[in-house]
């Protein structure tokens, strides 16, 4: 019995309508002192409210499980993307109800206003959908779902609590990866901004002999096959396969810089995942190396079906460290791990020429054995400052400094090119598209 009353009081909540009704009764009692003709009206109204409260309690409590709720989510969340969360509701009461829904979302989102209002007819089912956008990888703990239910009288509210506690892992942006994967499979990469690059030469991978059609390169005509068939035949070539594509991710303090909620490290991780997937779709092998003051994860290049899950598991655990990048350790690891000439995509960040000069000797050594592509970032905030007109001396000073840093980034690109090292200077939001574009261009030009 004690448990029943304890549960009853924990579930019972008074509504604003009840407080307004009681306030009205109090006013009537006060007025009855000045207007005797009111007589017993205040008492009658008060008793009527009491009767309605009892009726409301009976309506809401006579059914033990008057409502049902369940949260549906994916098995894992995608970092930096809108992830759909679905709450299923069902009303078992024989009358319409009004509900308020509180979903206890993980503390990382710092939201305290997840409150949904809805109405449910008798025996009706309804779905509430909303999205969450995580900005950090890791484990996110969801709590319970609380449903506050009111009958048509609306004087009290009964709370139903559904234990839906669940821990979900936030992985690198696999939603972005799937988008590029679907576009690549359906040859619609142009829709995502991936450029179509004209083939400038022929690979060594012979595919087949086919009939000549208008637009085929005359240099590919197979004269012997044409003589046998009595019609023009051309040799068809395909991109070279089974080439190694290694993504090296700098996770030192230079990659901690935030942009729209995500760090540069997270943007690099998302781009690495998408690029690795595209590379394996192109029948290349994808591998990963992470580095800061010491070597982190090393995943040898492969194209087996399980490789993508291995890449996801590696990237999920990586965090920014706060020390300088150890380029000597990186060079030794590259020489030890990557035995054949490969495309090495190095995601890092240079803010000045001096930071490049410290790393340049090792970059030149890596470029002797592999095709090295350096990917680093524009400082978009400084770019905005340099584009704004200056209105005073302080504004001129800030604009000058911003222009100086922007110019130095361009000088870094030229300095790398002078030593035969390819580079991409990109804004964080365009990182994935620009990196995939350059990879496809390298494949077409057969420079690996």
Automatic annotation (TrEMBL):
Pfam families: DUF58
Coiled-coil zones: none
Source taxon at top rank: Bacteria
Domain DUF58 residues, every copy: 209-359
Organism encoding this protein: Paradesertivirga mongoliensis
This protein's UniProt keywords: Membrane, Transmembrane, Transmembrane helix
Protein name: DUF58 domain-containing protein
Organismal lineage: Bacteria, Pseudomonadati, Bacteroidota, Sphingobacteriia, Sphingobacteriales
TM regions (residue ranges): 12-35, 41-61
């Amino acid at each position: 019995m004690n448990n029943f009353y304890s549960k009853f009081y924990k579930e019972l909540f008074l509504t604003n309508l009840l407080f307004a009704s009681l306030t009205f009764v109090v006013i009537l009692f006060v007025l009855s002192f000045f207007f005797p003709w009111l007589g017993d009206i205040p008492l009658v109204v008060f008793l009527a409210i009491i009767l309605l409260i009892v009726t409301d309690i009976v309506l809401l409590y006579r059914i033990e499980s008057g409502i049902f709720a369940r949260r549906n989510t994916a098995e894992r969340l995608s970092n930096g993307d809108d992830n759909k969360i679905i709450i299923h509701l069902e009303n078992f009461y024989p009358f319409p109800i009004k509900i308020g829904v509180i979903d206890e979302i993980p503390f990382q989102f710092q939201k305290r206003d997840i409150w949904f209002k809805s109405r449910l007819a008798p025996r009706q089912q309804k779905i509430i959908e909303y999205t969450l956008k995580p900005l950090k990888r890791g484990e996110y703990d969801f709590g319970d779902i609380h449903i506050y239910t009111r009958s048509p009288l609306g004087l009290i509210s009964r709370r139903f609590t559904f234990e839906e506690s669940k821990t979900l892992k936030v992985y690198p942006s696999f939603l972005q990866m799937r988008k590029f994967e679907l576009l690549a499979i359906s040859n619609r990469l142009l829709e995502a901004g991936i450029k179509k690059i004209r083939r400038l030469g022929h690979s060594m991978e012979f595919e087949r002999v086919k009939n000549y059609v208008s637009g085929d390169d005359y240099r590919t005509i197979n004269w012997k096959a044409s003589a046998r068939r009595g019609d023009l035949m051309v040799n068809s070539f395909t991109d070279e396969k089974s080439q190694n594509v290694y993504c090296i991710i700098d996770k030192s303090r230079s990659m901690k810089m935030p942009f729209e909620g995500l760090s540069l490290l997270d943007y690099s991780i998302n781009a690495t995942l998408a690029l690795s997937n595209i590379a394996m779709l192109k029948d290349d092998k994808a591998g990963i190396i992470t580095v800061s003051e010491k070597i982190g994860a090393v995943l040898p290049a492969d194209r087996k079906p399980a490789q993508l899950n291995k890449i996801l598991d590696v990237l999920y655990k990586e965090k920014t460290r706060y020390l300088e990048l150890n380029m000597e350790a990186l060079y030794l690891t590259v020489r030890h791990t990557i035995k054949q000439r490969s495309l090495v995509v190095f995601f890092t960040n240079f803010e000045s020429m001096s930071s490049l000069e410290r790393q340049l000797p090792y970059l030149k050594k890596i470029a002797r054995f592999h095709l090295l592509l350096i990917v680093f970032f524009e400082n978009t905030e400084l770019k905005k400052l340099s584009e704004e007109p200056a209105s005073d001396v302080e504004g001129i000073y800030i604009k000058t400094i911003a222009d100086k840093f922007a110019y130095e980034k361009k000088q870094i690109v030229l300095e790398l090119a002078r030593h035969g090292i390819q580079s991409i200077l990109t804004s964080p939001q365009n990182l994935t598209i620009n990196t995939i574009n350059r990879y496809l261009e390298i494949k077409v030009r057969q420079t690996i």
